[in-house]
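Review form for a predicted model. The reviewer records the input and the model, then writes brief findings.
Reviewer: anonymous (R2)
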Amino acid sequence: MNAQLGPTKRCAEVQLDRRHSPKPAKRRFRIDGLLLLTLGLPWILALTASCADLIAPIDAVVATCSVENPACPARFFCDDGLCLRSTVARCGDGVVQAKATEECDDGNDEPNDRCDGCRVTYCGDGLAQHNAGEACDDGNHLDFDACTADCVWARCGDGIARRDSSPGSANHEDCDDGNDEDHDRCTNDCLAARCGDGWVLEGVEHCDDGNETDDDDCSNTCGLGVVEVASGTSHNCARTELGRVKCWGSNDNGQLGNGSYDSRSSPTIVPQLDGVQRLFIDNDTSCALRDDHSVWCWGENVGLSPVRFGGQRSWIDVASFTSGDAQRVYALDSEGQLFLVTPARESMIVHAEPMQVIDSGDDHACTLGRSGRMYCFGGNRGGQLGMVGDNVPAPTFIGLENIVAIAALSMRTCAINTEGALLCWGLSFGRFVELTPSPAPMLDVPAARSIWGSGDTLIVRLASDELYIADVWHRRFYRRDPQEPSFFGPFMPQISPGGYTNLLSATATPGRRCAVSDKRRISCWGSLGLGLGIGAEIVIKTPHRVPNLGRAQEVAVGGFHTCARLSGGSVRCWGDDSANQRGSRVGLPREAPPSLVYGLQNAQQLTSGPLMSCALKSDQTAVCWGVLEGGSDNPLRRYSVINSGMPRWQTLDAGAKSLCGIDDQGTLSCWGGNTSGQLGNGTLEPNNEPEPVRVLGPVISVTSSDLPSQWSSSDTAELSLTMHRCARDRQSMVWCWGGNKRGQSGAPDPAHPKWVGEPQMIEELGPTTLVSAQSERTCAVTTDGRSICWGMSCGGALGVVETAGDPYNEARQPIEGLSGLPTKFVGDTCWNCALLESGEVACWGDGDYGVLGNGSDLNNRQPTAVEGLPPVRQIDGRSNQVCAVTEDGHVYCWGYNGQSQLAPPTHGVSIENGWVVTPTELPLF
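Model under review:
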């Protein structure tokens, strides 16, 4: 035997020549080319003693076995008539042999468990592992089909509503609330409670007789049908057949009447207001006329709750408009007299004859006399009074007679005469481009029957029930025939057949329309915002809990997607999936609920960039999915859910167009795009492989900025120099590099180079406990308790009083008004949020898109707590969106929601480019 061969090689060359002989004592072995004739079993045992990890027969007394009698002692197996002991690498020996491509080895022969054929099985691999507790496995991670994301069969009552079957089919579920209560909104048959099912839904329906007769004591809307809708600038209100009012939309002036400034994406009751027979809305002021003929108003210049206007007269119609800084409310009494009314008094307006109708625009109003004559007064900037001249203080006849309907809008007015002609004047619609201060017929509108208007938009219904929409904002005149599917203009939604042939009410504002059919159902369409009220809001101004998620440990906010790490180590993502940034591998629609990242288990940390996300697993390997967008200098790199070949990482951090990671030695490496020098290699050249950052020694944390959200595509040259990074070393000192236009990387004034190629220590800070790189700004917390931001100063995001001599806070002034020490900052160009040690989240700066979480889009320079949040343990945010994980594991989000990345929209809503393109019935009650 060649003595230079190691034991493994020598043993590997032993070949057992098995022969079917009743005398197993004589066997032939080939060892290094030498033929050795053995004289008995003891020789074999002696020769193979050093090869006990390969093949050796046992004592000859029990050396035989057969297919009929395969019994062998423990740790032996029957092989060709012999009981053999072997630790040769084989599936089932209990040892994972990585070089033999074994993923696992549980040492048993049980099929369909978590280690089957030495391959790791998991819920979602397409094979039902019954011994691992899986009842089914359909190979996807969808929670709403026949086999749930937990690999159990879906059933009515499991709390998850199925969406894989059409209504009326055997497996269809309208809902699934997971309880056995049969009188709530979801029955025990998983059908949505509905008017006409014969059960009165307590607290919601007023009656339910279970029949289809609409003219008996209980209508087919169970007393909850809508008979009127009215719109303001950014809110809607609806009146039910029982005289209750619900409002939804923006509420920054109290126009929803709910006693607060909290906006609502779904209709909310106006408390202590019933018996309403008419609604009137002007911009952000709402008014109602009750059955007792009293007038009540709320909103701008009035208050957060309804206030009674006028005295004890019997009022029949109401209108209001803004004059200067005052809200003027006008009311007609039962004798046709016109009054200016306030909560304290009423003042009669002298006019020529008794009036029957009044309607108002932004700063003017018109009345219709009982003789059919039309009168107008108020502002006249656009010729909306139907005459030439300045403002008119009292109702003045404008020369129109035989009028049957009027509508006052923003700087324009329309009327219909007894012949059905539609006349409009002021700032013109359709083909008119100049001001038209005298009434003129609208073109192509024959036989008008009724009109509704608000702001810049007019809805016209013809005698034929054909609908027209005139939108001065786009200077287009749209036409829609219920019997003809074609339409004209850049935007005109398809009207549901048969639903709008007999309108009870309609309303329109720029980008938003609502209509009420004779079936007392309300539908809305247009720009996807709070004003639609269909639960698919494009802006979420207060914290919204993400449904269908489970207990979360961590959340990571990407560009238009969000991911959460759950308590079991799996990851769910929601929002845009066009670049596989949800990790579904199937390109889920954005309205799909949170779905599992395919095949990912044992996640320990999350990080997200604009189009991708990564997770660190418990074995310190990295898994990424989506696209690392490197820009023109670095082609797109698509990642899949596999080990991406990286070192053993302690942490990962995703920025715009690049990634960084800290390995187990504390070395910081970065790769990807480098247009701002954010890789820290002293150049602007990209690098597709991890490269250690120059100058830096071992670090304990790294943070990356994002692309500024307010930049447009035309700013490409400047945009390429905005991204930067910061890190803390083991002495807790801060180092920054990359984009530096606002001094965010710490380079001193007046030099301000646009980019810093290698890390620069910011010595004046001293030791820190936290650093956060944001779009053109950096924030840090020092060990002596100072919270400081410097760089981009718009919106008050620096948290200090800005001075002309120090616009970027290079003097490192502490944030003013912060009520505790931050444990994390998140932010964008003009806003900041901080998670405090107390578990409270405070936000300040530019309030666009409701990113401050305070229910409005107004700026706030003072750090203010986000209300409605339970104690929080982790936050993340970028691009006007923030998500937080509470101590009890729930995820709340607020801000911009254009791709449903914060909250999936109501299922079934047809959305294109941020618009609801077909009228969608509003779940009003």
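Findings: The chain has a mean pLDDT of 76.
Further findings: The two ends are 90 Å apart (CA to CA).
Recommendation: see findings above.
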